[in-house]
Amino acid sequence: MIEKTYTMIKPDGVANKHIGQIISRFENAGLTIERMELSKVTKKQAVANYAEHKGKPFYDKLIAYVTSGPVVKMVVSGEGAVSKVRQLMGATNPKEAAPGTIRGDFGLVMDENVIHGSDSKESAKREISIFFGK
Ligand code: IDP
Ligand code: MG
């Protein structure tokens, strides 16, 4: 079934000039870029997006990092888009992410791991509305 997901190239991915290669990977995987915006994440958006992590030891650093510079916010669609994007991203920790995945190839450390992608259809719906409105 065709579905939508939210994905975002994080500040390190933009700063290290990986935008083009990441978008190419999505398109080569048959996914469609539906919406795209280069801008900063507001504090409010960051807090809403990462609500599930509030109180964890890395939370404050995560919010500071994700709001630190421009990101590329995207809505991507396609067959199984949520899991396809998660597969292309690779494991959360770049040190454990397989070669050939976005985090495996472009990431260095857990704190700055290149890309975000919704983890379920429900998260996707919520996150699309946080970043692009209803
Ligand atoms: P995900 O991005 O692969 O879905 P989550 O567990 O949802 O991973 O964590 C959200 C983000 O929080 C991660 O992408 C990473 O930037 C950061 N993060 C998660 N766990 C840690 C940690 O143990 N140390 C530092 N940062 C972390
Ligand atoms: Mg997550």
Compact description:
The chain has 134 residues and is α+β, with helices and mostly antiparallel strands. It has helices at residues 11-15, 19-28, 43-49, 59-66, 81-89, 102-106, 121-132; strands spanning 2-9, 32-39, 71-79, 115-117.
Task: Give the arrangement of secondary structure elements.
Blueprint: E1 2-9, H1 11-15, H2 19-28, E2 32-39, H3 43-49, H4 59-66, E3 71-79, H5 81-89, H6 102-106, E4 115-117, H7 121-132
Antiparallel strand pairs: 1-3, 1-4, 2-3
The structure holds inosine-5'-diphosphate and magnesium ion.
The site of inosine-5'-diphosphate (IDP) has 9 residues, from loops.
Describe the structure in your own words.
This protein has a 4-stranded antiparallel beta sheet with strand order 2-3-1-4. It has helices at 11-15, 19-28, 43-49, 59-66, 81-89, 102-106, 121-132, and strands spanning 2-9, 32-39, 71-79, 115-117. The two termini are 21 Å apart. The chain is α+β, with helices and mostly antiparallel strands and 134 residues long. The protein is globular and about 35 Å long. The chain binds inosine-5'-diphosphate and magnesium ion.
How would you describe this structure in keywords?
134 residues, alpha+beta, four-stranded antiparallel beta sheet, 21% strand, globular, binds inosine-5'-diphosphate, binds magnesium ion
Q: Which structural class should the secondary elements be placed in? A: alpha+beta
How far apart the termini lie comes to 21 Å
Portion in beta strands: 15-25%
Subunit organisation of the chains: single chain
Query: How many helices in DSSP terms?
Result: 7
Question: In sequence order, what are the helices and strands, one letter per element?
Answer: EHHEHHEHHEH
Low-confidence stretches: none
Mean pLDDT: 98
